[in-house]
Amino acid sequence: MNSTLLYRSTILLFVMVIMSVAAYPVSRPFYDRLVVEDGWIEYLTAIALALTGIYAMACLFTNFRNLNPLQKVVLTALSLLMLFGAGEEISWGQRLFDIRSADFFLEHNLQQEINVHNLELYGLSLNRLIFSNLLVVVLTAYFCLFPFGYRYSVKFRNRIDHAGIPIPRIEHTAAMLAGTTMVLLIPDDKVWEIWEGSLSLMVFAIMMRPYNEERLTWHIHGYPL
């Protein structure tokens, strides 16, 4: 598939997903089908994360000799993180393959599923600590502070490029801020399923068309989509 067409299709799908929050006040039954466990948005999220992980790994293997050690670490970590997120999103295929949860997950997982992000250990919710609070800090820095620092600090720009970190474009940041604002207006916890889906699509879009694409070694000699 042409990479430009894939990028534009991803952005269009992002808009469609984030706009689906409008179904909440218009048609609750339709909205409930969107955000239900094993719904199409959940699987879309997993697919987008998996594609991002596969793309990062492909860039790593294709450009391995041209990358410095730090870039290899970053691409490997990014790939593993995205693939881990994809597996977590669908509880590692538990419901797909009708796998029974082990006793550990039955006792410590809030949904009694095979995943890490819903674990509660010693009264501490990993979902709240890592996948909520920490994620907010990381994403705020990545979408807001990193693009600013990259544009106005030569030292920061050089370090980012040396590490091979893709930087969001202004339109990427604006879209995520607008989408997050829309999600916050919906008084339902399940709406974050829509936000997760839109975020996974945006991350895939950034990997394909980062702001610093002309300075990224793995992107210049990149893997053709």
Report on this structure.
- This protein is mainly α and 225 residues long.
- The chain has one domain.
- The chain has 11 helices and 2 strands, in the order H-H-H-H-H-H-E-E-H-H-H-H-H.
- A two-stranded antiparallel sheet has the order 1-2.
- The longest helix is centred in the middle third of the chain and has 27 residues, at 126-152.
- The radius of gyration is 18 Å and the shape is globular.
- The mean pLDDT is 90.
What descriptors fit this protein?
two-stranded antiparallel sheet; 11 helices; globular; mainly alpha; single chain; about 220 residues
Task: Put the structure in a nutshell.
With 225 residues, this protein is mostly helical.
Number of strands: 2
- Secondary-structure class: mainly alpha
Kindly estimate the percentage of residues that lie in beta strands according to DSSP: under 5%
- Spans of at least 5 consecutive residues with low confidence: none
Strand order of the largest sheet: 1-2
What sequence of helices (H) and strands (E) makes up the elements? Answer: HHHHHHEEHHHHH
Q: Helicity range of the residues?
A: 55-70%
Computed over alpha carbons, the radius of gyration is 18 Å
How many distinct domains? 1
The mean pLDDT is 90
Per the principal axes of the C-alpha atoms, what is the gross shape?
A: globular
